[in-house]
Design brief:
Blueprint: E1 13-15, E2 24-27, E3 32-41, H1 48-65, E4 69-79, H2 86-102, E5 106-114, E6 119-129, E7 144-147, H3 153-161, H4 167-178, H5 182-190, E8 195-198, H6 203-215, E9 217-221, H7 232-237, H8 243-252, E10 256-257, H9 263-268, E11 278-282, H10 284-296, E12 302-309, E13 315-317
Parallel strand pairs: 4-5, 9-13, 10-13
Antiparallel strand pairs: 1-2, 2-3, 3-6, 4-6, 7-11, 7-12, 8-11, 9-12
């Protein structure tokens, strides 16, 4: 978008693309704002119903990452006409509809086009109380960083495409991909989090870098093996990595001090996620209470680091404890 002219900004626009945030936010009504986002992608799992669920969970995640509540959605479908039976399309739509119903979202309609490659997702509109708005620019020195889903969905999805993912791990992957971030977002708002983002295509490193840059701080991350889904590090070491992982490392690597972190773990931190968890920055005095609340709500959580004064890099990895992790 660098070559496009900059339009005059409506004063009611609270968040737009300029801060690389998860969704756009538009002031509306007394004390509220609209949250708008769109996301669609090619299949990440083989089952059509599960694919529809994943696409829906992923699409509403950006609204949760802003501290909002999704309200309505429009389906976006690119379908290879004549290549797949109509039952496949029906199952994709059914999966998406069921997940949107779980999220309390009304699907109002949508748009479809013929395309050689199957793609599915949603445009989603939500609402947020402006005093509870979470952006990626609010982290402050001393904040603790909490992550609400383990990492490695890109590695496991790549292994699935190559026939190297056993059935129990596929079920585990699918459960995570279809899990909503609603409870994590509600807890973050309740306990006074300052900022959040959902960890998706740019991986933990990419999204953490964006948050650190927007906030004017450096994030110190202390990687542990427990941050990753089962077999992720083993499969990454064996070369089961998506092209997006390599691109993420090429783009964000110069902003990261890897500080002797083992290569496989450093590599997996760039893994592009689908329907990933929230990365939440919260004042240190509230971090333990938020982590406890998340666990009570059956949300996986790990404290992954802290915000420090801005240094030469956006991200510093401290991997000295990995041998005993």
């Amino acid at each position: 978008m660098n070559g496009l002219p900059t339009p005059k900004r409506d004063p009611r626009v609270l968040v737009d693309h300029s801060t690389l945030d998860d969704a756009g936010v538009f002031r509306w009504g007394k004390g509220e704002a609209l949250v708008q986002t769109a996301d669609f992608f090619t299949p990440i799992v083989d089952d059509p119903y599960d694919y529809g669920q994943v696409a829906a969970a992923n699409a509403v995640s950006d609204v949760y990452a802003m501290g909002g509540r999704p309200l309505t959605a429009l389906a976006l479908l690119c379908f290879p006409d004549g290549q797949l039976p109509p039952e496949v399309l029906q199952e994709i739509l059914r999966g998406g509809q069921d997940k949107m119903t779980e999220a309390g979202v009304s699907v109002l309609g949508g748009h479809s086009v013929r395309d050689p490659e199957l793609k599915f997702g949603y445009s989603v509109t939500g609402v947020v109380q402006r005093r509870h708005l979470l952006t990626n620019a609010g982290a402050r020195r001393g904040d603790r960083l909490l992550l609400t889903k383990p990492l490695g969905t890109g590695v496991l999805a790549t292994a699935l495409k190559h026939g190297k993912l056993e059935a129990p791990l596929l079920r585990r992957l699918t459960r995570q991909l279809t899990a909503l971030n609603r409870r994590a977002a509600e807890a973050a708002v309740e306990f006074g989090a300052r900022t959040a983002t959902d960890v998706t295509g740019f991986g933990l490193i990419g999204h953490a870098s964006q948050m650190a840059d927007a906030s004017g701080v450096t994030f110190v991350l202390r990687p542990r093996r427990e941050w990753f889904l089962p077999r992720v590090l083993e499969l990454a070491a064996a070369g089961e990595v998506a092209g997006g992982l390599k691109k993420n490392r090429e783009f964000y690597g110069s902003s990261v001090d890897e500080a002797g972190t083992p290569e496989t773990i450093a590599l997996a931190l760039y893994d592009p996620q689908t329907s990933g968890g929230l990365l939440i920055a919260i004042p240190a005095r509230r971090a333990a209470a938020l982590a406890t609340a998340l666990k009570r709500r059956r949300v996986w959580v790990a404290e992954v680091g802290e915000a420090t004064a801005r240094g030469a890099r956006s991200i510093v990895l401290e991997g000295r404890d990995l041998k005993t992790a």
